[in-house]
Design goal:
2 helices
Length: 88
């Protein structure tokens, strides 16, 4: 069954539920579809959480790199001041 067909079937089952004419077999189909959708939502939530963690780690690494580069510039300036032949 294609996605449009699944969507159409789901809408049909929901319509029957709202009209109060859902058969027991259809109720099972609807429950199964809802379980599948809930699993997808959970998977997406998990993926979003991983993505947020990755972004945080990247931001932390970037900040750490910026601090390291600033420290390197400070040390280079100190070396330049203390190098032989230069006046402090």
């Amino acid at each position: 069954m294609t996605q449009p067909q699944r969507d159409e079937r789901l809408h049909h089952l929901l319509d029957r539920l709202l009209r109060g004419v859902l058969l027991p077999e259809e109720a099972e189909q609807l429950a199964g579809a809802v379980r599948v959708l809930q699993a997808r939502v959970n998977d997406q939530d998990g993926a979003a959480s991983v993505a947020v963690s990755a972004v945080r780690l990247m931001n932390q690494a970037g900040a750490q790199r910026d601090r390291a580069e600033a420290r390197i510039r400070e040390l280079e300036a100190q070396v330049a001041r203390l190098a032989p032949g230069t006046t402090p």
